[in-house]
Amino acid sequence: MTRMNAVLPALAIGSLLASCGSSSHPARRSTPTPAPSMTATSTIAPTLSPTPQPTSPPPKSTPRPTSEPQHRSTPPPARPHVLLIMLENKGYGATLGSCTADPYLCSLASQYLSTTAWDAVSHPSLPNYLAVTSGSTQGCSSDGCPVGISAPDLGGQLTAAGIPWEAYMESLPSACDTIAASGAYTRVHNPFVYYTDNASRCHDVPYPESGGLISALDGSSPPDFVWVSPNLNDDMHNGSVQQGDAWLRANLAPVLASSWFTAGNATVIVTMDENDQQSSPAGGQVPFVVISSRAKGAGAVATYGNLYGTLRSIEEVFGLPLLGGAQNPSNGDVVRYFG
Q1: 81-337 has which fold?
Q2: Where along the chain do its domains lie?
Q3: Tens of pLDDT along 282-334?
Q4: Is residue 77 very low, low, confident or very high in pLDDT (cuts 50, 70, 90)?
Q5: Burial of residue 252, with CB atoms counted within 10 A of its CB: 0-12 exposed, 13-18 middle, 19 or more buried
Q6: Contact 125, 308 (CB under 8 A)
Q7: Nearest to 301 by CA among 288, 314, 318
Q8: Terminus-to-terminus CA distance in the chain, angstroms?
């Protein structure tokens, strides 16, 4: 056998080995082996197994990203927004207790949260307005108490904390007017004008109607806290429950569609100062509706509270000190449903 003839069979065997290896292990990568030198003494030992090995599927691999994802920080929560609408006199039974004359308010109570045990603290109107804004009736037992109360109140707290706020009074003749009455406006439904700690800036302003309110809420410098007192015809005091419900539909529905509300951490409260049909407990049972993303779907709950609890919840969400009766948790607390 010549030198070339001895090498050719060995090369044929090597070629067969290479093809078998590639069919048995298609995913395995190996370091190339140098080709044998074609010399008289070079031989290639066959290493084929008599039985072919079963072919296994290639291992699955997770694609690696071509670049590291950018770090995204969690945006800070939106600042709290609270709007309170104060209705008048008709009480729970004539509103949420029957739902015959106020379908819009009742639809909100069903869709969000309402309490079946929320009370006013006194009679007549003014002591209740002082209670819900200062945690005390301030010794006032009638609607004839004068302006000039030096006790701290919610408005003064908001101002001191740098929290923008407005109190809109429907039919108020002019901003911060201290007039006792004018047309359908009455001062006893405007609690903030009674306190001396609000004198640094005028926050009691005429209600600008729905369009003006939405412009303010969705403007570049919106208030975080808003109080709205409809006039005597629209708050159910002189007008009917039906008339008050129609006012709510026309004025509140746009608020709930505004970016001020839909952007998050926003709450609307609809409640009442007193219940003329009840002399006890205290100022009688009143409707209390909380509208927010957290309150959605809660429906009617038996949580007890009163106007001091209303103040407590508002002060808590803004991180303000609790005033007077708001310090007592037995007066109610619904802040967990805010925002």
Answers
A1: Alkaline Phosphatase, subunit A (3.40.720)
A2: 81-337
A3: 999 999 999 999 999 999 999 999 999 999 999 999 999 999 999 999 999 99
A4: low
A5: buried
A6: no
A7: 288
A8: 96
